[in-house]
Amino acid sequence: xxxxxxxxxxxxxxxxxxxxxxxxxIAVIAIGLTTNFMLRDQAAISDNHSRAAxxxxxxxxxxxxxxxxxxxxxxxxxxxxxNIQLSPAAILRAHSLLDEAVxxxxxxxxxxxxxxxxxxxxxxxxxxxxxxxxxxxxxxxxLEELQSYARAVSDLTARAGGLLTGQAxxxxxxxxxxxxxxxxxxxxxxxxxxxxxxxxxWVVGMRLNHAMASVRQENATLTRTTAAVQRRNEQFQAxxxxxxxxTETLSLKYVVQTAIREAKRLVAADVAILRLLRGETLDVAGxxxxxxxxxxxxxxxxxxxxxxxxxxxxxxxxxxxxRALESVLDGEGMAGARSGLVVPLIVGARVxxxxxxxxxxxxxxxxxxxxVLEMMxxxxxxxxxxxxxxEASEHxxxxxALTLLPNRRQLLRDTTDRFAVEIAAxxxxxxxxxxxxxxxxxNDEFGHRTGDITLQxxxxxxxxxxxxxxxxxxxxxxxxxxxxxxxxxxxxxxRMEHVRAAVERSxxxxxxxxxVGPVTVSIGLASGPDQSRDFDELIKLAxxxxxxxxxxxxxxxxxxxxxxxxxxxxxxxxxxxxx
Amino acid sequence: MRRWLPLVALVLLLAAPACVEGSDVAxxxxxxxxxxxxxxxxxxxxxxxxxxxxxPSIPAGLTTFRVRNEGTVPHEFVxxxxxxxxxxxxxxxxxxxxxxxxxxxxxxxDPGSYRIVCLQVFKLPEGAASHMALGQTEPLKVKG
Lengths: 579, 144
What we know:
The structure holds two protein chains of two kinds.
Chain A: H1 2-75, H2 88-112, H3 115-136, H4 143-247, H5 252-266, E1 271-278, E2 281-289, H6 292-297, E3 301-302, H7 306-314, E4 318-320, E5 339-347, E6 350-359, H8 367-397, H9 408-424, E7 429-436, H10 439-446, H11 448-465, E8 471-476, E9 479-485, H12 489-505, E10 521-528, H13 535-551, E11 557-559, H14 567-578
Parallel strand pairs in A: 10-11
Antiparallel strand pairs in A: 1-2, 1-6, 2-3, 4-5, 5-6, 7-9, 7-10, 8-9
Helix pairs in contact in A: 1-2, 1-4, 2-3, 3-4, 4-5, 4-8, 5-8, 10-11, 11-12, 13-14
Chain B: H1 5-26, E1 30-32, E2 42-47, E3 50-53, E4 57-59, E5 61-69, E6 75-83, E7 86-87, E8 92-97, E9 102-109, E10 112-117, E11 121-124, E12 127-130, E13 137-143
Parallel strand pairs in B: 2-5, 4-13
Antiparallel strand pairs in B: 1-9, 2-3, 5-9, 6-7, 6-8, 6-10, 10-13, 11-12
């Protein structure tokens, strides 16, 4: 019952409230009107009884006066009339009194209409009739009888008066009772209305509170959902951007930089680091961090070591909480990290590296972050692998396989643009052509294998003898080219002298570790922009100077001098040596 | 105009009894001589303290009551309308008359409830009382 009532209240609380107010108002009006009508009726009745009581008193008084007339008549008999003891004046007076009494009795009976008032009316009329008979001399009524009858009527009237007065008082009490009852009814109606309105207001208030709480909760949920969707949208936009960027380039460096920059932004990390697997080592390929100290902190990791190493080895993503981070290795994670996310970079079934994000916030990374980063990692892994392969092939195409020095193609690539820029800026550039003396003899005497070894040893000596800013290339055969940017002819000559001496000092071991020496080189040198502003031309001039060195007895450095040597002569000298 | 005279006379002739009867209905109550009463009169016997009505129910209209005092004290015959416990003003009355006497009253009564009462008053040692209070009252039904 209570549950049903509660359900009804929940469903129709406002209706009940309005109905309560309506019913309460109607009840108050009804009680007021009913009370008014009751009081009016009761007042009319009370007025009738009061008036009747007054009339009874008057009747009693007049009948009493008439009785007194009769008594007076008995005491003073009229001698002139034998059968009439009352004087005509007394009779008239008594008649007049009884006329008034009859009128009063009629009015009283008209007001009340009860048996008592009827008896009084009848009695008074009988008394008057008796007086008329007495006056007419019919002898039916004696004066004593009239007086006695008047006494009886007076008694009857007096008793009726008492009764009517009592009734008037009862009426008054009844009116008081009606008033009290009406007040009580009004109080009950108002009380019930107040309770119903209050109760329904409470129910409505509770429902409103509940509804408001639901709305707030839904609003909060909506806000969270909107924020999540917005973040997700941003993540996908960034993801799309990074996918586009990394798949459009074959530059490993660019792929790595793009990947860590966008990964850091995607998951709002403090640090993003990309490692590439080289053999069994996860080398640091790039770090994106706000703090430079974080960048320097990271070090290479062994595959399977630490949290990152294990994630790479298993090929599975790892979300790292604060407790897991207690076991992080030095150089593996960010200082003060409280959460981490490590995603392996996988191509096919091969792990090529890891992408790790670190945050100083506890439980920072969500399942969404993991999903987005994994999607990104799959693309980055492919791009990394592609760039890696590309750079390897590029390296192979521009590297001499025997000496591992950059070849002539690389020489042209390195110098084509830069040479023009440096020369235009007035920066000196020197080119040295280096040729192994009597190389043919090594091939002939010790075999081609020893010839190859000779080339490798000389190449190593050249690489280690030049300065860091200089570059050495295998030009072809037993000929090498050294390019010295920002170095004029005099300085270049000194440096080349140093190189020549280094080769001369080196000990060359053959295939069976026997000493096959000595090995020397002849060097020709030319410098721009003094001698030429064209690189190819400078190569030719250096080559001519090399010829001069050969011609002068080998194992020496010669700076190109146009007055000493001419190109055709150089060609002939080289041909003679080859022969 | 003269052509209508016989018709007017006929209408007046027919209307005359109705007018006479109507005047009977409107006539005030009247005490008449017993000799004037017929066999249709309602016989009433008065005694201490009550009435014996020959017919408790009578038709509306002019009615003659023939009342005989069979008691030992004077009695009167009063007809009072009585409706829902409320008594109206008397509509017909025979003044108190002596024991053994017979009186007649002709009165026109409308349909309704009435009571036949005697309002003579006694002076008793404990106080005055009417004959009606002692039980001398009888209902009378007048049907339409």
